[in-house]
Design a protein that fits this description.
oxidoreductase activity, binds flavin mononucleotide, Nitroreductase, four-stranded antiparallel β-sheet, alpha+beta, NADH Oxidase, globular, about 10% strand
């Protein structure tokens, strides 16, 4: 094992979901900023970066958000809470940004690769990301891809609901990068989906169409901060070779 893989192995093994943090240990909020900067480098669907990271640091807001996290210890005892949020309504500006970056990268080139890349952000992305309130466009896309899929391989996940899954996948990857980076900084985290999303969104001033993927608490584990041994099913039950 190389030094790097040994280091990563230790990081993954030492990350646990911590439910109780020790406030006698000083907490460096800059570590959160650094870890979030790394999180922005996470892979994400079509590089649309339809995510936001909302830090809750002040005592009063943190306590309120902890209450909205159903009063979980992991939230109540944290030094900081970070909400990982998806922002589907920003798709147009992100598609334009990607298209202009493609244009810049391919300046002076008029080849098939350049054309394909531009078409991706100017035609395909709008086709898949545009949605109406009731998801009817998505249903139409679903029917279309079903028909086209009878003849050739097709991406089938094109409904409004599929898009939500797509955005939460990317946001979750950022969350994982963040938690690993926090561990590398010597701190602990706990990802939480047990929260009142309506109240949490209100507190963070998020628009109706934003969704919180998870809220991650941060701090230093207390001696009794990990509730049990780590249990996982056998690798044979989840890893399959084809
Ligand atoms: C999407 C997601 C949501 C979770 N929500 C909560 C939660 O609300 N409260 C909590 O205490 N732990 C929560 N967890 C932590 C899991 O319980 C924990 O990851 C699992 O038991 C494995 O333990 P480990 O993280 O220490 O390896 C969540 C984890 C994930 C990935």
């Amino acid at each position: 094992m190389s030094d790097t893989s040994a280091l990563y192995h230790d990081l993954v093994h030492s990350r646990r979901s911590v439910r109780k943090y020790d406030h006698t240990v000083p907490f460096d909020h800059d570590a959160v900023a650094r870890a979030l900067t790394l999180a922005t480098l996470s892979p994400n669907s079509s590089n649309m970066q339809l995510w936001e990271f909302h830090r809750v640091i002040s005592d009063d807001k943190r306590q309120l958000l902890a209450e909205y996290c159903m009063g979980q210890n992991a939230a109540k005892t944290a030094n900081e809470l970070v909400a990982f949020v998806v922002t589907p309504y920003k798709w147009q500006s992100r598609a334009q940004l990607n298209a202009s970056q493609v244009r810049q990268a391919f300046t002076g080139r008029d080849d098939a690769t350049a054309k394909r890349a531009l078409k991706y952000y100017e035609k395909l992305i709008p086709f898949v990301y545009r949605n109406d309130r009731f998801g009817l466009l998505g249903v139409a896309r679903k029917i279309l891809t079903f028909c086209l899929g009878l003849k050739k391989p097709m991406v089938r996940e094109v409904s409004k609901a599929d898009l939500r899954v797509c955005l939460h996948k990317s946001s979750s990857l950022a969350a994982m990068t963040f938690m690993t980076a926090m561990r590398a900084e010597g701190y602990d985290t706990c990802p939480m989906e047990g929260f009142d999303s309506v109240r949490a969104k209100q507190l963070l001033g998020l628009p109706h169409d934003a969704e919180i993927t998870m809220i991650i608490s941060c701090g230093t584990r207390s001696d009794d901060g990990i509730y049990s041994e780590r249990h996982r099913v056998d690798a044979d039950d989840v890893i399959f070779n084809h």
